[in-house]
Amino acid sequence: MSMLKYILRRLLQLVPILFGVLLITFFLSRAMPGDPIQAHLPPIYTQAQYEARRHQLGFDLPLWQQFFIYLGNLFAGNWGYSISINRGQDVWELIWERFPRTLDIAILSIIIASIVGIKTGVISATHRNKAKDTILRGFALVGVSIPVFWLGLLLQFFVAYKLGWLPAIGYKDMRYSDPPLRTGFMVIDAIIAGQMNLAIDYLVHLILPVLCLAFIFLATFTRQTRSSMLEILQQDYIRTARAKGCREKDVIKKHARRNALIPTTTVIGLSIGGLLGGAMLTEITFNLHGMGELLLRAILDRDYYVLNAIVFMTTMIFILVNLFTDMAYAYLDPRITFQ
Prior knowledge:
Order of helices and strands: HHHHHHHHHHHHHH
Strand content: under 5%
CATH class: Mainly Alpha
Radius of gyration: 24 Å
Number of strands: 0
CATH topology: MetI-like fold
Shape: globular
Number of helices: 14
Number of domains: 1
């Protein structure tokens, strides 16, 4: 099967998955305790006011009818409007305001964690039970064990408050106003607007949250790469390469590391999907106002349309990232075919 046919088949499989996710999310969100209609009413209201607002929002219709109306609007490009968080704002606009902030953190964190994690995993495996291996395993154990919000608080306390090297919270200095919204990415929009100081300030504010997330995922990638490398180094073809006189450097880089990256690639792909869905605790710790915080507010405020849209978008991200991960397997190991 060619790669194109494989991709088309996987994309067709999206349809029942997305429908199932929409169906489950829609009905479960309606089963949540609380009444979002009260957020649209004054502190003291009559039953007539309540029923009028309920009818205006379309909540007086049967649930199955509400679902099919929502489904039709969704595929027509209408994601609905926020009913609690930013009343009346288009859901897509609300998400697009937050998503680039989460994407910035996710991309930078994954790049740093992947490069450093794979490198340290290889070093740890090739120096098994030696000093380097012991030290790196110790750091990996700490990274896997420590909660991300606790690490964020430690970085804030020592780096921001004690040393004063970096800002502790926020995504920009309060003296700067947001640049005109063009791409949604603050750095790019600031550069387009000619506000280089704002672009630099935004990058400086990203350092602590990116380091926080990168360290957590770096530890996972290190452990996975080390485990895979140790297994690969015991294979017959590795012993054959060494017996033929290949340099140890070539054996590690050309023969062992590439094959060991296949399981690590899976872990990286799943991590990307999780991060793009919203690094909730990190965003709340550093007050970044990203997708994670928006998801939490949608749940607490029972903003159904925002909640459904975020779950739908997160599902799409997971599926597409898994597709790209599967395609990367063929590059890492040409023996893998798309059957």
